[in-house]
Amino acid sequence: MGHILLMYLIALAFAIVSPLLLPFSVVWFAFAWVAWRHNLSYVYQRKYESGGLMWIFMFSRIVMCLVIGQLFTFCVLVVRGAYWQAFLIIAFMPAITARYFK
Fold it and tell me: Whole-model pTM?
């Protein structure tokens, strides 16, 4: 599961620098989704059912990846001289992200 979060972080952070990375990321996630769906349905045997407790852990990690992506986008915009857009990202995006993190 960790490699999927790593790919999500890489795709999210570098999408602003290299938009050509996005189609490859979509293809990778499509294949990963098919593989994980097959493995969870036919390969892995569950010893217990957690009742959705893993969702809280995964959602907090996904939100942290979003925050890192926002900070990376902010830094790229500052370096490129787009100060107004960087201000908008740093002013509004953390509040919007925090709203969904509750």
Answer: 0.61
